[in-house]
Amino acid sequence: MIQIFIILAIAFSKPLNPKKVLYAINCGAPSNYKSPSGIQYEKDIQTDPETVVADYSLNSEVSSQQIKYTREPQIYLTERHAYKSFSYQIPLQKEGTYTLILKFAEMYFDTKGKRVFHVKFGEQRVIDKLDIVAKVGKFASNDEYIEFEYVAGQVFQNNTLCVEAVQEGKLLVNLEKTKFDNPYIHGIVLYAGGISETDYEEYQYMKDNWEKILSEEKIKEELERQKKSEAKVKRKEKVKFRNDHLNELENEFEVDDQSQVTIAPQTQRVGLRTLITSPLGTAGLFISFFFGMSIFNKIISKISQAKIKGYEKEVPETKPKQEKQTKEKSDTGDKKNKTKESKEKSKDKQQ
Fold it and tell me: Membrane-spanning residues where (predicted)?
């Protein structure tokens, strides 16, 4: 029943709407940061030389600690503090109701009363004697939600005018030092709307039920892990077997990822590689090779024979021409001889 209550509470909680965040600073951070909830935090451009930046992400003993009551621990790993009072100026756009969220976490002291300071809008104190360890302990976020009205260039908090709270259209947020160590801050968020429109209720619920929420989130993670594991239980996995002759068989099995126990073979599939490397496939390959070579030799033989026949046809045509020319020459010679003989005979007769 408790778990169901936690789920319902988280489901109906109102997270901070990033679209209504007008300005956000990750105090002490050298670069911009986008939180998991979608809020874009700007890097800290504070120019007061008397302030100091502390980056706890460089300290493994501190950065390895779980920061309670937040899903954005990155914000609390950098801070700006000073050995005196110091301030931030937050730009205001137009008249209306706003909520300023100031983010703190004690990363050094673990005893209450060691660090105490005030928060003021101009000269008006809006948080008195803030002691983070007394409120939430060490390594825990403490976000302070302060609703105010911006009207006619002036700021009102709880219907009280905050004197000198606005300078050149910017809200002056003062962190006032006391005799109990130094004031500090980790993050600032300006939200367009009253506290009821922010995630204030969700944050308070998180603080009151942190251990239960962690337990519930662990249960949800375990359920998600089980779902993923069940989805993989019936997946198909190829299992290959090889013998001494490098013959390969492939089967598909259903495998349980958790126990790695083979349930049952489903199908057997013979691939091209398996067919070629099998004895029958090898024999078939050799037969195909020799058969192909035989056909190739026959084709070469046919081409050679065709060329020889073509040559033989050309030779007989040449011989008759030569014989004809020789015969023509002999006939011409005979004619000449006959003519000569006839001339001689006629000469003899005349004599």
Answer: 280-300
